[in-house]
């Protein structure tokens, strides 16, 4: 009887943990630029950053992925196994845009893209978002991690 109870408790904890992780990932984190709010997935580990948005056939409107690094640096991005065109936006540690690559196409791989200025974050959005909302270098980006 005790083994069944312990097993049930462990199963319950596992289910609650999985549900919490899935709900956090599906909701995402709000990020705003110029009063435009996006819901972004956070890529803050090597594994998540390596996976990125590859192998997806679409990205919902007003969704994106924010790549988070421990410190500012020269972070290069490419479109390996990425199927959707993207805008790539490099963001400084002070949360200001320092570089934008617009409408990067999947067929550009193995070319890589980078900022001339150090960045601590890189935001990927659907291609055309930066132009549609008139994002510019030095625009403030607001988000909480």
Number of strands: 7
Give a short account of the largest sheet. 7 strands, mixed
Structural class: alpha+beta
Q: How many domains make up the coordinates?
A: 1
Summary of the model, kept short:
By secondary structure, this protein is of the alpha+beta class. It has helices at 2-27, 46-51, 129-132, and strands at 29-33, 36-43, 63-73, 86-91, 97-104, 119-126, 141-143. It has one domain: Protein of unknown function DUF192 (Jelly Rolls, Sandwich).
Key traits:
7-stranded mixed beta sheet; alpha+beta
Describe this structure in words.
There is one protein chain. The protein is an alpha+beta fold and 145 residues long. The protein has one domain: Jelly Rolls. It is built from 3 helices and 7 strands, in the order αββαββββαβ.
Topology of this protein?
Elements (H helix, E strand, L loop, with lengths): L1 H26 L1 E5 L2 E8 L2 H6 L11 E11 L12 E6 L5 E8 L14 E8 L2 H4 L8 E3 L2
Parallel strand pairs: 2-3
Antiparallel strand pairs: 1-2, 1-7, 3-6, 4-5, 4-6
């Amino acid at each position: 009887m005790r083994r069944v109870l312990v097993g049930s408790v462990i199963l319950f904890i596992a289910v609650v943990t999985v549900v919490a992780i899935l709900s956090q990932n599906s909701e995402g984190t709000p990020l705003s630029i110029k009063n435009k709010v996006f819901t972004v997935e956070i890529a803050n580990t090597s594994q998540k950053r390596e996976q990125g948005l590859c192998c997806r056939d679409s990205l919902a409107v007003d969704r994106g992925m924010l790549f988070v690094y421990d410190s500012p640096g020269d972070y290069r991005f490419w479109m390996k196994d990425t199927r959707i065109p993207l805008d790539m936006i490099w963001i400084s540690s002070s949360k200001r845009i320092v570089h934008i690559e617009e409408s990067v196409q999947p067929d550009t791989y193995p070319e890589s893209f980078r900022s001339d200025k150090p960045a601590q974050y890189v935001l990927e959005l659907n291609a055309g978002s930066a132009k549609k909302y008139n994002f510019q270098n030095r625009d403030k980006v607001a988000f909480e991690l």
